[in-house]
Design a protein that fits this description.
Layout: H1 7-19, H2 58-63, H3 70-79, H4 85-114, H5 124-157, H6 174-194, H7 197-205, H8 209-215, H9 220-232, H10 235-252, H11 260-279
Helix pairs in contact: 1-4, 3-10, 3-11, 4-5, 5-6, 5-8, 5-11, 6-7, 6-8, 6-9, 8-9, 10-11
Amino acid sequence: MYLALTKDVAIGYIYLLICLHTFSIHKEQINMTTDNPYKPPATEIHDNLGASETGGTFQDGIDGNYDFLIMDVIKEAWEKTYGVKVTLLGAFLVYWLVLLPVTFGLDFVFATIMGFPGFDSNSIVVIILISLIQQSILAAILYPFIAGIMMVGVRRSVDLPVSLSMVFGYLVYTIPVAIAAILMTILTMIGFFLLIIPGLYLSVAYLLTIPLIVEKNLGSWQAMEASRKAITHHWFKVFFTYFVMSIIMMISAIPLGIGLIWTLPMMVNVGGILYRIMFGVEEAR
């Protein structure tokens, strides 16, 4: 979701964020907490982590005992942008500042490799393999930062305090997150290369993998399977929720991209709300 940004789009967004300083934007109170909010529960996929009025339970998510209305999720995501825009826009700025040099660096390295004498850079197999390796490395580097952005949405979904420092707050999970990012990238790209539909299915089914790793303390493959099993029960609803949000974001970008100030945080909130509905948030119990 977040990874599929081109260099040109990323540069444009950074320019947009810099320009925001010329606007009179009201200050939003950003609460911070020094307590550790992430209590690691049992990691077995079929463990019942307990019920909560603030969302579903882990077992409910796996069993598909949840439901939602697309427009209700989008409406709530809009309402919860208040108080979180500055945090999330700052988080995206940090993400893009990491994305740009990493992307340019990987492009340079692989362009150099493909320029070696005797290297068949026109081979479809070679092109696919290079693309797969490059995207896997990119995912492994960026997803630990994406974890922080996604957790802002998860915490906001239950009105827990958030802060810009959360972008770096989950780097302790770098190894399992990076492993999951590589596996998701490989499996999804193979699915797209083969028949497209399997890749589309997996790209949606794995959407909640990262917060499951950091919020439920699951292993990489456990989290991938938990996300896939839970989302599969209402795959089309999840797909069309993000489809509608994508249309909203495209429309919001038309007037000089100013609308993205609201719709980028909305997109993050959508993920957090869906996570809460399916699995619940442990600290809010």
